[in-house]
Structures are given as structure tokens and as C-alpha cells.
């Protein structure tokens, strides 16, 4: 491959003018990303040949260029080899367990206008934010179903679900669950610090897309239009001592291969800067929702399999999560090849676990509606164990 992929970072402390500049570990990702031309990410993918794929398969430590080789169309004939290696690496690092968790939707109020999301401000759905009694009821319902790890989810509306609301919810929920994670609007370092001190261990925050033009196209109103603020949110959470940062792209907004390359660059930047933190990757694929996006860019099941396998080979330490967006057949098949965490029984509307409510409040449709016990039974048939918490990570 003639062109090596990297973001621009300054590595010396002195500039040509004698003034101190930021080192590569002091720079936030957005600084380097602002100098990256999106179209340049396409060129290395087109230059991949069989030799590049074979070299990547033989390596123990993969570069960004190797990752590009494995997600390229040229690597598709090598899926069986990739799967064998991904399965071996996953068992070596994570054993035979997969962690279960459930999303707990606290609110569907959102002040952003996004083309792909059911919570978008212009969609005509009934808005709901859980009060204390409703939060307690959701917690009780999830405990009865066997969950001990929950992901707190809200729309992005700082006046309704700002730090005070989130802090109150965490105070009520932390005594009830061993692990709490959040998927909420980007916060300041100080706000992340408040939640971290209250016991939140993990952040999930997806950039949606790293393509500046596509990001502008799909985020049409609200604070989420600020791409740079979102790009730097994982670093603010890491500065607040979050133990685990979960990244991802929303697959279907732009070219998934270029977006995945960008995400890999982001991951490597964070790993270098926050080497004590753990990192994870998720693979949300666009699903039907209210006011849905027309003509999302399609990625086949085979291509999604290739992407997940490539991530496992790229980094054997990554937690790879797969949600109920995907169908049972796909989740069953990929479980033994690299996935380490799975959501289950997901209801994507506030109050959905405790109430038998209509689905008019949901963020998107789920594909896998199986009960936790059914998922557990299938995994056991494959020699895998579904666990409620991962004490190894956070002990």
C-alpha cells in the first residue's frame, strides 16, 4: 500500500517560531481530524491487493493500513480465515462468556433534528421523561428479568435531561445495579466527573459519521450540529476517569468502510492518550423509525460480518457489542466469532419495561425480540455463557 493512513499530529514541543506546541498526546482528536481530507480515506481502500490482506492476516499487531486491507472488498474471499482467527483471539482474551445488558430509556425528549432518529424534534410522537417512581418501576422490572447491567439512554435535551436529571437517576439506580453505563448527550468534563463519582463506569457515544459533509447533512438543527464538540466528548469522559469508552458509527449514513477507518484512527488516538482506559466498539445499523431516513446506504450481512471480524483482528482487547437491532439469526452466528457483549429484551421507549405501553414512543424497531433465557439457551448450545455482569473489567 503506497499511502499510509494517519491523522496529522505535531510531535515536537517547539514550533518553527519557537513557541510551544501541543504534543500528539496533548492534542484532541478533532485537532488532527480537521486536517484530514475525507476523500483521502478512499484511496488506500482501493489500493489493497491480495498480498496486503494476507500480510494483515499473518500479523499479531495490526496497523491502520492492515485494518483497511481487512475491511476492503479485496478481503471478502478471506472471511473464513478471518473468522477462524477472530474466534481464537476472542476465546484467548475473553474466554467463553458474553455479557448481557439492557438499555433503560429515561426520556425520548430531544432538541435535535436528525434525519435518522425516531426521537428527532420534528417527529410527532408522544414525549415522555420518567419521574422518580417510573425510574424505580423500570429498575424493578429489569431486575425481575435478570439484568444487573444497564445502559441509561436519553434523547439530547439539556434543559430536560441535563446533568441534574441524570445525576438524580444515577443516584436512584446505582444501588440496584452492579454496572451503569450512559448513552446521553455529550457532557462537559465536570459533568462526566459528577456521574463518574456516583458510580457510572462506562460511556457509549457514537460519532454517527466522521464524514463532515454527511454529518452536516444529517444533523439539521440543535447542539448536535457541533461535530467538534461531539468528537472530543470521549476525551472529556476519559479525563473524568471513565473506565470504559465505547465508540461506533451509525452504519448507513455514508461509506461504511471510510467511516470505519476514521473510527479506527479515533480509537488509536484515544488508546495512545488514555492507555489505562478500556475501549469498546458497537455496530449500530440503521433501523426503521418514525420519520425514517430515506435510502440509507446499505451494508449486507456479509459485509457487517467482515467489519466485525476485522475489528477483532485489529484489536484483540476490544469489547465488541451487538444490539437487538440485528436479527436473531445474525446474532447467533456472530456470537462465537468475536462479540463480547449483547443487549437483550430491549425496549427503546421510556417506561417500556414496567408498562405494557404502545410502541409510539420508541426510538427504533428492534429485530431480536427474544427473552433473555432464550438467548442464553442458544449461546449455551454454542459453548458460550451469558453473564449478567463483567466483574473482570471493573473489579
UniProtKB/TrEMBL annotation:
Transmembrane segments: none annotated. It comes from the Bacteria. Its cofactor is [4Fe-4S] cluster. Residues 1-25 are annotated as: Disordered. Keywords: 4Fe-4S, Iron, Iron-sulfur, Lyase, Metal-binding, S-adenosyl-L-methionine. It holds the Pfam family BATS. It is an enzyme of class 4 (lyase). GO terms for molecular function: 2-iminoacetate synthase activity; 4 iron, 4 sulfur cluster binding; iron ion binding. Residues 96-315 form the Radical SAM core domain. Its EC number is 4.1.99.19. The keyword Iron-sulfur applies. NCBIfam families: thiH. This is 2-iminoacetate synthase ThiH. It comes from Reinekea thalattae.
Amino acid at each position: 500500500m503506497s499511502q499510509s493512513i494517519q491523522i496529522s499530529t505535531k510531535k515536537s514541543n517547539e514550533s518553527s517560531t519557537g513557541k510551544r506546541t501541543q504534543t500528539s498526546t496533548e492534542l484532541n482528536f478533532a485537532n488532527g481530524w480537521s486536517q484530514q481530507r475525507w476523500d483521502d480515506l478512499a484511496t488506500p481502500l482501493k489500493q489493497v491487493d491480495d498480498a496486503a490482506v494476507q500480510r494483515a492476516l499473518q500479523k499479531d499487531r495490526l496497523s491502520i493500513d492492515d485494518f483497511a486491507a481487512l475491511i476492503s472488498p479485496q478481503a471478502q474471499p478471506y472471511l473464513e480465515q478471518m473468522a477462524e482467527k477472530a474466534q481464537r483471539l476472542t476465546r484467548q482474551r475473553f474466554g467463553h462468556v458474553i455479557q448481557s445488558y439492557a438499555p433503560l430509556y429515561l426520556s425520548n425528549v430531544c432538541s435535535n433534528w436528525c434525519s435518522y432518529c425516531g426521537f428527532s424534534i420534528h417527529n410527532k410522537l408522544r414525549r415522555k421523561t420518567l419521574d422518580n417512581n417510573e425510574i424505580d418501576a423500570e429498575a424493578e422490572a429489569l431486575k425481575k428479568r435478570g439484568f444487573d447491567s444497564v445502559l441509561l439512554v436519553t434523547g439530547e435535551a439539556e434543559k430536560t435531561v441535563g446533568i441534574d436529571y441524570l445525576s438524580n437517576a444515577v443516584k436512584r439506580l446505582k444501588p440496584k445495579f452492579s454496572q451503569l453505563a450512559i448513552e446521553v448527550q455529550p457532557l462537559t468534563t465536570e459533568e462526566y466527573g459528577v456521574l463518574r463519582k456516583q458510580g457510572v463506569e462506562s460511556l457509549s457515544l457514537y460519532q454517527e459519521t466522521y464524514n463532515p459533509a454527511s454529518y452536516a447533512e444529517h444533523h439539521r438543527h440543535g447542539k448536535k450540529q457541533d461535530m467538534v464538540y461531539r468528537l472530543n466528548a470521549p476525551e472529556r469522559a476519559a479525563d473524568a476517569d471513565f473506565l470504559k469508552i465505547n465508540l461506533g458509527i451509525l452504519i448507513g449514513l455514508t461509506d461504511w468502510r471510510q467511516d470505519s477507518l476514521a473510527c479506527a484512527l479515533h480509537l488509536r488516538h484515544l488508546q495512545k492518550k488514555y492507555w489505562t482506559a478500556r475501549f469498546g466498539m458497537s455496530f449500530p445499523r440503521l433501523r426503521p423509525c418514525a420519520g425514517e431516513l430515506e435510502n440509507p446506504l446499505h451494508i449486507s450481512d456479509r459485509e457487517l460480518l467482515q467489519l466485525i471480524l476485522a475489528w477483532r483482528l485489529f484489536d484483540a482487547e476490544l469489547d465488541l457489542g451487538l444490539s437487538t437491532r440485528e436479527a436473531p439469526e445474525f446474532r447467533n452466528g456472530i456470537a462465537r466469532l468475536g462479540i463480547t457483549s449483547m443487549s437483550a429484551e430491549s425496549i427503546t421507549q421510556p417506561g417500556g419495561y414496567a408498562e405494557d405501553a404502545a410502541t409510539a414512543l420508541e426510538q427504533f424497531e428492534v429485530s431480536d425480540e427474544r427473552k433473555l433465557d432464550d438467548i442464553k439457551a442458544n449461546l449455551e448450545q454454542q459453548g458460550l455463557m451469558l453473564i449478567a455482569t463483567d466483574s473482570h473489567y471493573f473489579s
